[in-house]
Design a protein that fits this description.
Structural class: mainly beta
Number of strands: 27
Shape: globular
Largest sheet: 22 strands, antiparallel, barrel
Strand content: over 45%
């Protein structure tokens, strides 16, 4: 079995579980509202290219994966907490030297945990999962595939804060956030970040006119590298034109040492428009140290369809990528919109359970095409459209992102060490059909492409087709049977490959 990083991972998992238990104890007495779950899954995979090798050196194998899981869910009036830990043992029939153990952990809260009534709150997230190290290495679409381009990522974020309203309608918040992230890859270093943030303001200080003052200070320690510091201070005015339209103007100041210590004046504006519960448009523009920053989000829901569009350009870090929005359940592109478009809660739950059983939805971090310790300037455009029928649903989605380094002059061993930008594009088409109340079929096609502006840099492409049939076999037993075909052209020293696989899963839920 592979042992790299297992000791640190075990300590991390125990610390996260103890923290989760502490959160449970602080949030409420261990009584009504908490639900314990346990299950075990057996997954058998036959692949004709277990190491994702180029044509001529392919080898097949049978992979057996056993995954027990334990979950704890707390549901309360103002928040929900969920934690799930699922270790897996992978055994390879033809080459036991590849046998390995992997961890999957997810801990998050939906709604801030209320420690002191209407005053002290806590947000907490933790995860352990696997992701790609390089966008140009061999991209594994399955946990059983053997590739050196994969790392285990451990991340945790704890954010206690006080929030309330003083006499006169004055809103306030003061928050401290500690974030840790680390991997078992020698290319990516352990990162610890401490942040203080706060705001004070009145949304209706002068009728429709409101004001807000805020600050954010961040101290980011990357092991073996110089500390990265940033400070932002700002003031804003808001004006509610009516109940559906709100305008905002901002002025501020920021300093950072991303490339060299600098001081900058910031200014911006924003608009929020929600004419109906089915339609929402928000737009923000800010002049920052890196130039123009912006965010545009549009969504509209119709009786049998829905769409959303978005465009963003902002600064991001690995801490934000790992813990800023870590869901316990991970939905591939387009699936979130497919789920949101279903109005019936029972149908939504049935769809989600089917995807979990099929292995389409996992636990942990969102898949990242490459890992880095840099501060990034990221630009992204994305959109999706869903059509829903009585038994069918079709979702088309697309996204394009460009990442540039803001950490000039600092040496990092990652995909941006020889390039100034990396561009990724993804297209997805997903179709689901309910064959019966107990059985459903899912078909999907995804195309992903990565490239950089480095001289002579190749483009990495991957096309994947998945067909999955899932069914409830008993009161506590579910099964899936699926096939996949993957075609990949290599980049960055990774050879292109083809793979065909058949995957069967049985999952038994104890309680």
């Amino acid at each position: 079995m592979r042992k790299g990083g297992r000791g640190r991972t075990a300590h991390f998992i125990w610390a996260a579980l103890v923290a989760g238990a502490g959160l449970a104890a602080c949030a409420s007495a261990f009584a009504a509202g908490w639900k314990l779950g346990a299950a075990v899954s057996l997954r058998e995979t036959y692949t004709d290219n277990v190491a994702l090798s180029a044509s001529g050196s392919r080898s097949s194998d049978w992979i057996t994966e056993v995954s027990p899981s334990l979950s704890l869910t707390g549901t309360f009036p103002t928040f929900k907490v969920r934690a799930e830990y699922s270790p897996s043992v992978l055994a390879y029939a033809r080459d036991s030297s590849r046998n390995r153990f992997r961890n999957t952990l997810g801990l998050s809260n939906d709604g801030s945990i209320e420690l002191v009534d209407k005053l002290v709150f806590l947000d907490a997230r933790a995860s352990v999962t696997e992701t790609s190290v390089s966008a140009f290495g061999t991209q594994a679409g399955d946990a059983g595939s053997v590739t050196g381009n994969r790392a285990e990522v451990r991340a945790v974020s704890l954010s206690p804060f006080i929030r309330g309203r003083a006499p006169g309608g004055l809103d306030y918040e003061l928050r401290h956030t500690f974030t840790y992230s680390g991997t078992d890859s020698s290319q990516i270093q352990t990162t610890r970040t401490k942040q203080w943030s706060g705001r004070v303001g009145q949304s209706n200080a002068y009728g429709a006119l409101g004001w807000n003052l805020d600050f954010l200070t961040s101290r980011r320690d990357v092991q073996g590298s110089q500390d990265v510091n940033s400070d932002r201070y700002g003031a804003s005015l808001t004006y509610a034109v009516d109940r559906t339209l709100r305008l905002a103007g901002r002025l501020g100041h920021e300093t950072n040492n991303y490339s060299s210590t600098g001081s900058f004046t910031t200014k911006g504006a924003g608009v929020s428009w929600q004419p109906t519960v089915r339609t929402s448009v928000t737009a923000d523009y800010d002049r920052r140290f890196f130039g123009n920053g912006y965010s545009l989000q549009m969504s509209h829901r119709m009786p049998h369809s829905a769409f959303n569009l978005g465009f963003t350009r902002d600064v991001t870090t690995s801490d934000q990528l790992f813990t800023g929005a870590v869901p316990v359940l991970l939905l591939p592109p387009g699936f979130a919109e497919l789920l949101a478009a279903e109005p019936d809660p029972a149908t939504r739950l049935a769809l989600l359970n089917a995807w979990i059983r099929a292995g389409i939805v996992g636990i942990g971090l969102e898949q990242r095409l490459f890992l880095t310790n840099r501060v990034l300037i990221s630009r992204r455009a994305f959109g999706s459209f869903t059509i829903r029928g009585a038994r069918n649903a079709l979702t088309a989605s697309a996204s394009r992102s460009e990442s540039r380094s803001a950490s000039e002059g600092i040496a990092f061993a990652d995909d941006l060490s020889a390039a100034s930008s990396i561009t990724t594009q993804s297209y997805s088409l997903q179709f689901s059909h309910a064959l019966s109340p107990l059985t459903s079929g899912i078909a999907g096609f995804t195309r992903t492409q990565s490239s950089s502006d480095a001289a002579g840099s190749p483009t990495s492409r991957q096309n994947a087709i998945n067909l999955t049939l899932s069914s409830r076999l008993g009161a506590r037993t579910n099964g899936t049977l699926g096939v996949r075909r993957t075609l990949s052209s290599g980049g960055g020293g990774a050879a292109g490959y083809q793979e065909n696989a058949v995957v069967g899963t049985l999952r038994y839920t104890f309680f």
